[in-house]
Amino acid sequence: MSFIHDDFLLSSKTARRLYHSFAKDEPILDYHNHLPPKDIAEDRQFRNLHEIWLEGDHYKWRAMRCNGIPEEYITGDASPREKFMAWAKTVPHTLRNPLYHWTHIELKRYFGIDELLNEKSAPAIWEQTQAALARPEMSTRGILRSQKVRALCTTDDPTDDLSWHKKCADDGFEIGVYPTFRPDKALAVQQPEAWNAWCDKLASVSNTDINNFSALLTALEKRHDFFHSMGCRLSDHGLNRCYANFSTEAAASRIFDRYRSHRTKRLYPEDHELLATHIMLHVGRLNARRKWTMQLHLGPVRNNNSRLAKKVGADVGCDSIGDYPQAESLSRFLDALDTENSLPKTVLYNVNPADNYVFGTMAGNFADGTTPGKVQFGSGWWFVDQKEGMEWQINALSNLGLLSRFIGMLTDSRSFMSFPRHEYFRRTLCNLLGNDIEAGLIPDDDELTGSMLKNICYANAKAYLGLEVS
């Protein structure tokens, strides 16, 4: 039997029945990823496995560094084939890391390859996949069709002109390619030079003179309106923790003036937190008004390795789990919006599994009888989007909330090879439920459990997010 077989991860007869009967054939709504929309608009044809698999995958880069691979063969000047061979050399050392599962399920689903990847098998796999990638059905649009993707949401700065999203729509491409509003740079006053340059860019694209704090908020609102016109229905925010330093708009304006005028050389953490609180509340209100969903990705410590960050850049595999206190500030931020009836649908993503119960219980505090699962405890994220982390998240959500209202999995990926992450999640979910049924913990009732599975895999996200999707 091949390693990736029909019943991979399914340890009981009931788990296998649930997966094959209810989960396997559901389509995909990938509502959060970092795919480049340009590649979809141009229907990019990848030339080799490096381009489609290794070009931007910092999960793999991190593993290669841990295996002692020189940076030349990761993000450096080595040839694409040399970089792939360095990855193949690393793969056997990833045993029990989720990368071992993902590597082989992706080779199986995209290329029908059952052979384990290692230094010996790598040359033949390189040649075989290079020939396969030249086929028209392996272009970006072909991949989306073959993986049964109905819609996806990229991650986009408010200053983006969204021209590639427009091209996809104008082409009549049947799969929805929607932007997500990610205004993190608006908060980054602690880096005044970069923040001012970004404000200048925002001023230009919004046709707004950003000479005061009110003008900044107006410019963001204009871009929010533009994103809405382009089909956007989600914002996304990558934060260490929620901001909840409430003060007057006059105080926020004074801070804005100091940093925008370049008058201050000293940075105060409380300045950043106060300004960020006001901006996040502003975006939350805009989301509520437009009936968008707000995604809060909370908890990482980013770019720990300053040497590598200086050499290679940000987001290259040198991030880790943070141990920030989350509960109080998250509660105060959500409550501030809820108090003024401006809390949008919200998904909370936790990167620190120690906080699963904090996030799981926080989500239930703000149900208001308007939207099932209005505040969601989102899927396992980043370091916990593997089998064990998914199980932890599913169990916490089940114990503390309503698993049946969960909007399911996403890839959070930069690679077009990552859509089998949905399959990986579905198999994990079916294995948990199947084992519960066989243990007598939940009824053996296909109408009950099967319909819940279908909803979690696709229908819940479709109903919750309000995207135009078939």
UniProtKB/TrEMBL annotation:
Chemical reaction(s) catalysed: aldehydo-D-galacturonate = keto-D-tagaturonate; D-glucuronate = D-fructuronate
EC number per UniProt: 5.3.1.12
Keywords from the UniProt entry: Isomerase
InterPro entries reported for this sequence: Metal_Hydrolase (IPR032466), Uronate_isomerase (IPR003766)
Cross-referenced Pfam families: UxaC
Protein's pathway: Carbohydrate metabolism; pentose and glucuronate interconversion
One Gene Ontology MF term: glucuronate isomerase activity
EC class: isomerase
GO annotation (BP), single: D-glucuronate catabolic process
Domain of life (superkingdom): Bacteria
Family statement: Belongs to the metallo-dependent hydrolases superfamily. Uronate isomerase family.
HAMAP family attached to this UniProt entry: UxaC (MF_00675)
UniProt name for this protein: Uronate isomerase
